[in-house]
Amino acid sequence: MSLPNYTAWNYRIWHYTYLTICGLVFFFLIAPLFIILPLSFNAEQYIHFSAGMLALDPDAFSLRWYEDMIYGTKNPWGLAAKNSIIIAFFATIGSTILGTVAALGLSSRYMPYKAAFMALLISPMIVPLIISGTAIFFFMAKVGLAATHTGIILAHIILGTPFVVITVTATLTGFDHSVTRAAASLGSNPVNTFMKITLPLILPGVISGALFAFVTSFDEVVVVLFLAGLENTTIPIQMWVGLREQLSPTIMAVATCLIIMSTLILVSAELLRRRSERLRGINR
Amino acid sequence: MSTEQILSSDGIPLEISLKKAERKNKFRAVMLVGPLFLFLIITYVFPIGDMLFRSIDDRKITQMLPNTFTAIEKWDGQDLPGEPVYAALYEDLAYLKKNKTYGKIIARLNYEKGGFSSLIKKTVRKLGKFEEGNYKEQFIEVNKRWGQNDYLVSLKNAAPNWTFAKYLKGVDLKYDQNGSIVEQPEDRRIHKVLWLRTLKVAFWVTIFCFILAYPISYLLATLPMKYSNLLMICVLLPFWTSLLVRTSSWMVLLQQQGPINDLIVWLGFAANDARPELMYNVIGTFVAMTQILLPFMVLPLYSVMKTISPSLMRAGKSLGGTPFVAFRKVYFPLTIPGIGAGSLLVFILAIGYYITPALVGGASGSLISNTIAYHMKSSLDWSFAAALGTMLLVGVLTIYWIYNKLVGIDNIKLG
Predict the structure, then answer these.
(1) Residue pLDDT, tens place only, B379-396
(2) Transmembrane segments in this chain: where (chain B) (predicted)?
């Protein structure tokens, strides 16, 4: 944002103050994430920058906490990662299918009581997690699914569907329904039309909804805290337990891996969003 | 004035045929929403209703002292009850003693009135020596508290199947002996403070998020695409990053030997041996929550600002307004929908926050969610946890309803 030549000096000052403020806010948003990266390579077992690290002495850095994360005898990260991936995988499939199908119905102009249904289907995102956790725990205990993978997967499907519903409905708002009518007039049945015409067009929205559902499940602590037994421990649970005891460099190593993962997911979500906008003919 | 009825190709009037087609479409739409709707009703809405039910359910003790409660129902609470009540009590207690389950009523009765615990234990121990008949005298002989009216009134108060006592406890009130509502004793008034703190933190986090988000959303909305996309990553990366990772980074930053404290000492605001406590109090909750919830304010603001044409500001200025006046009179009013959407979203999320306050908040920075979790996991007073949860839920749903009215739920933007 360059200023035109005729700008008065007081506006000039205001403009640069404004940019500085923005810079500080962006710093506040992003800097806390980057504090973790160097600390995970700490050679000592304390969570602060040693003199050696500040002097960039190579001996002050090491990969020992990553080794500890993967090979450490007492570390539960292996089991936790396995559980997290299994749970998030099935929860994502469940929420994506249920959410996409529901979004198709919600976007139909024949759908009665649209707003009320939408409000209900989105509510798991709005209701505080502690309440969802409590309620789901009582339910799962009653039907005998507490401390099972199935119970946690079902809970995560509940929490993940709102994201899929939102992203897919958003994709469908710009959807040109004449293409499905064209398909129908050419003799295609509804299922075939969906698979061959609608789905490819809304796929970016579906995938980005699925990414949201995956992240929601992969990152979810509160409900799992209530539902999980020792066998169902997940990465967030282990982080939670670790953080309650004390900050350890191994947690920093795990956190670094999670940041790398979220960066990858962010990049794919952004690419998908742009592709979706291009497909729907929204030019910006 | 008669009109020729228009017929479709198969001879049915067009109107009927159209209605039929529309009904079919409607049915199809409902069938598509159906699976998720049913799934949520069974696994989510019903359990939440069940939780609400649990918070007023007081049937356990009624089932354990059935005879006593039937007998005591007729008693007016004035003079000591007669022999039938004591006889029924003996019958119930003897049964509970035989099954060794009397422990369960102790906690419940002690909640009604302190001193019941020792009274029941003592009585049950001596129950074997009771002789047939004249139970009233024998009870009073075991412990003279059985001859005091207030213990029996408390027993009577525990009789109804349903109670709002847990809700009253949630706002530091209780039923007294006569069933009227009074304040809890001074040293037990802890929940009102908690509610107020939760509201205060949620309110100020919302305000700060707004103050921080507004300038950067404006910058993102007005910068050319190639720069704003880059800066947008600063907003979206925290948004996509695990909540625990972000909280742990704040734990690193705010700890006593952490970088922020180093900076404070280096700048000379505090001595090295008197580093301020930035964590495990309300400051920690506050700072961390503001940063974590900031993206939820930026995204709705940004999407509204993106739709405001820059020519409006130019028009305002060309009509003689200073940039400030043009901003205040033209631009700002147009962003109000975004402000409303962002603020309500942040407030809703903040009011039920659990993880961050639990990790960086300590005792003085914990919020209502933490108390609910405490009663669920540690004190095991599930009905009280359910009551607090229901109260929180009612608050959140009210705001959600307002949000839906003002913003429309289908306008929630993600990323």
Answers:
(1) 778 888 888 999 999 999
(2) 27-46, 201-221, 227-245, 278-302, 330-351, 382-403
